[in-house]
Write a structure and sequence with these properties.
Blueprint (H helix, E strand, L loop, with lengths): L7 E7 L9 H8 L7 H13 L12 H17 L4 E5 L6 H10 L4 E6 L9 H11 L4 E7 L4 H22 L5 E6 L29 H14 L11 E6 L13 H10 L4 E6 L7 H4 L1 H13 L2 E4 L7 H12 L5 E2 L7
Parallel strand pairs: 1-2, 1-3, 3-4, 5-6, 5-7, 7-8
Antiparallel strand pairs: 4-9
Bound molecules: the ligand C=CC1=C(C)c2cc3[nH]c(cc4nc(cc5[nH]c(cc1n2)c(C)c5CCC(=O)O)C(CCC(=O)O)=C4C)c(C)c3C=C and fe (ii) ion (FE2) (2 copies).
One fe (ii) ion binds next to loops.
EC number: 4.98.1.1
Organism: Tunturiibacter gelidiferens
GO molecular function: ferrochelatase activity; metal ion binding
C-alpha cells in the first residue's frame, strides 16, 4: 500500500527510556516536565531498571522499549512501502524535536503522527501532541489522538492472550480470570473545571471536558475479551485495573492491581492472567511492575500469576497501525493544523 502524498511521512511517538542507569535522574526530569525527583525515587527506579537488565554503561542491545519501538517502526515502514517511518520519543533520545527537525531537512511537509499509546489521555497523548506542535512550526500536522477501538489492535492482544489463558486454565483445572490493565493517571487529570488543575503545576489549563482515557482503556479490554474463545468467555471472566500509580503525590485513579488481586482471591480463584492493554511493547511497567512486583503480591495472596506476552513484533499490531495510518480505521484524529 502507499501513502497519498509524496511529502507526507509517518511519525511514531513513544515514551522513551534511558540507555543506562546513570541517566535516570535526567530522564525522570524529562518525564516530570523539568521537576527533579527526590533522590530516593531515582534510586528506586534505578533498582527496578537494573532488575530488568539496564546497566551502568550502554548494553550491546538497546533497552526493550527502544528496541521494540524501532522494530515496530521498521515493520510498519516495510508494510506501508511509502518511504521512511520516523520515531520520536518524548523523554529520551531520539527526541521528538530532533526527529521533526530531521523530517524537515528530509523535505517532509506533512506529518502523520501516531502515538504508540492507543488510548487518548491528557497525560500521555496530550504531552506528545504538545511536543510535536512545538517542533513542527510551519509543517502540516495530522495528529492521531486515539485508536483504542481498532479491531486489529484488539485482535493482536487476543492472539497473545488466548494461549496463555488456555494454558493457565488447563494447569489449574478451572477457569482463571483475566486482569486487563492500563497505566493509572492522577485523578485531577481526568477531572473538569477547577478540579482539573487543583494541585497541578502553574500554567496547566482548566479542562472543560472529561478525559476519555479511562473509558477508552476499558473499551480496548472489552474488545479483546469479545475475541476470546470459547464464545462463553464473558463479563465474569475478566477484571480491569489501573496499574503503576506514580510516585508524584496526590491520588491516582484505580482500582489498583493490588486491590483487584485481593478481590480475585476473595472470589475463590487460585490464579490470574494479566494483560496490560495500554502498552504495545515490553518496558519497566511490564517487566518489573507485573513480572516481579505484582507476581510477588499475587503469590503472597496464594494466586499464581501468568502474563500475556507483549505485542512487541506482532504482525497483527503492524496491520492495525497500517489501518490507522491509511485511514481505513477511523481513529480519533485532530483537525489538520499548521503550528505557528
Ligand atoms: C496514560 C498515562 C501514562 C502512560 C501510558 C504512561 C506510560 C509510561 N510511563 C513510563 C515511565 C514513567 N512514568 C512516570 C510518571 C508518570 N507517568 C504518567 C502517565 C503515564 N505513563 C504520569 C501522569 C506520571 C507522573 C509524571 C509527573 O509529572 O510526575 C515515571 C516517573 C516515576 C513515577 O512517577 O512512576 C516513569 C519512570 C513508561 C516507561 C511508560 C510506557 C512506555
Ligand atoms: Fe508514565
Ligand atoms: Fe509509570
Amino acid at each position: 500500500m502507499s501513502l497519498e502524498t509524496g511529502r507526507s511521512a509517518v511519525l511514531l511517538l513513544a515514551h522513551g527510556t534511558p540507555d543506562m542507569l546513570g541517566e535516570m535522574a535526567e530522564y525522570l526530569s524529562k518525564v516530570t516536565g523539568g521537576q527533579a525527583m527526590p533522590q530516593e525515587v531515582v534510586k528506586e527506579l534505578q533498582h527496578r531498571y537494573a532488575q530488568i537488565g539496564l546497566q551502568e554503561s550502554p548494553g550491546l542491545e538497546p533497552p526493550p522499549l527502544t528496541k521494540w519501538t524501532m522494530v515496530q517502526a521498521h515493520m510498519l515502514e516495510h508494510a506501508l512501502d511509502a518511504g521512511k517511518v520516523y520515531v520520536g520519543m518524548r523523554n529520551w533520545h531520539p527526541y521528538i524535536a530532533d526527529v521533526v527537525a530531521q523530517m524537515r531537512l528530509d523535505g517532509v511537509t506533512h506529518i502523520k503522527a501516531v502515538c504508540l499509546a492507543p488510548q487518548n489521555s491528557r497525560t500521555s497523548v496530550g504531552l506528545y501532541r504538545r511536543a510535536v506542535h512545538a517542533a513542527a512550526k510551519g509543517m502540516e500536522v495530522e495528529f492521531v489522538a486515539g485508536w483504542a477501538e481498532s479491531p486489529l489492535l484488539a485482535e493482536a492482544f487476543a492472539e497473545k492472550l488466548q494461549p496463555v489463558w488456555t494454558e493457565a486454565c488447563a494447569e489449574v483445572g478451572q477457569r482463571v480470570p483475566v486482569l486487563f490493565t492500563a497505566h493509572s493517571v492522577p485523578c485531577r487529570t481526568i477531572m473538569t473545571g477547577e478540579a482539573s488543575v487543583a494541585g497541578a503545576r502553574p500554567g496547566t489549563p482548566v479542562q472543560d471536558s472529561p478525559d476519555p482515557y479511562p473509558v477508552e482503556a476499558k473499551r480496548t479490554a472489552q474488545l479483546v475479551a469479545e475475541r476470546m474463545t470459547p464464545a462463553g468467555f464473558g463479563d465474569k471472566d475478566w477484571y480491569f485495573a489501573f496499574q503503576s500509580q506514580g510516585m508524584s503525590g496526590g491520588p491516582w485513579i484505580g482500582p489498583t492491581v493490588e486491590d483487584t488481586l485481593k478481590a480475585i482471591k476473595a472470589e475463590g480463584h487460585v490464579g490470574v492472567v494479566m494483560q496490560p492493554v495500554g502498552f504495545l511493547c515490553d518496558h519497566v511497567e511490564i517487566l518489573y511492575d507485573i513480572d516481579i512486583a505484582f507476581r510477588q503480591t499475587a503469590n503472597e495472596l496464594g494466586l499464581k500469576l501468568w502474563r500475556a506476552e507483549s505485542l512487541n513484533d506482532s504482525p497483527v499490531l503492524v496491520e492495525a497501525l497500517v489501518e490507522v495510518v491509511s485511514g481505513r480505521y477511523k481513529a480519533t484524529v485532530d483537525e489538520v493544523m499548521v503550528p505557528a
